[in-house]
Amino acid sequence: MGDKDKRLVLLTAELGKISVLAKGALGAKSRFKAISGSFSYGEYVLSKGNTFYYIKEGTLLESFYGLRTNLNRLSYAAYMCEAAETFSLEGQENRELLRLLLRGLQAEEKAEKGMESVAADVMVFRMLAENGFYPELGVCRQEGYRDDKKHDLSKPVLFFPGNGNILCAECANASFLNPTGNENASYQGGVWLSSGARAALSYCISQPLSKAFSFKVNEEVRVQIHEAVSRYLQFQTDHVYKSLTFLNRIDGSFT
Ligand SMILES: [Zn+2]
User: Fold this and answer.
1) Whole-model pTM?
2) Which residue has the higher pLDDT, 97 or 94?
């Protein structure tokens, strides 16, 4: 903003999302330089103006430097922040979301090559689950309607980003395959999840936060999780994520 000032969006424990002006932060010798960069986590002393808060002073607690050493990590970290920003409300306390974002950024900093999407997907899926969009991954949605069948969840299931439900393979095929065979089956926007992908998604929303990020997946599961979670987020928030569009464009180029 202007020549030297910088407008920041802070996710705070006490006030949720707030807009803050760091006066002179773009100046070469600004004392706000360290605490006004992307992904900076710190303690901030603010004063309230008419439109903005102003930074008076601040202490950097964590710069997440490891995110800057790799474009994929950086991009998925930006995606996490954009998702958190979309989901948080101005002035409304949300300590859980801040804790989750910090854990997510920590996990992303250590992400292995090619696996950078996983921490972001765990963070986003958990954020959705904790804020009114808890998915139903443990039961076929036809259970109770079609008790003539066994709803076998050890096989792949079809996940619906529109409502967070699943269909077992048999019910999915019975509902969406045309009578002549596989052709033209669109599965109504569903995403197929292997039993490994379904287990990983269930795990990351049911475990305590300290354990939510500690699992490993193979490439097939990684891709399925990313497809399911990013579509679930976009569907539930009805928002276009700039960082996700960017990621889809560079996908594979930097691995
Ligand atoms: Zn079923």
Assistant:
1) 0.91
2) 97
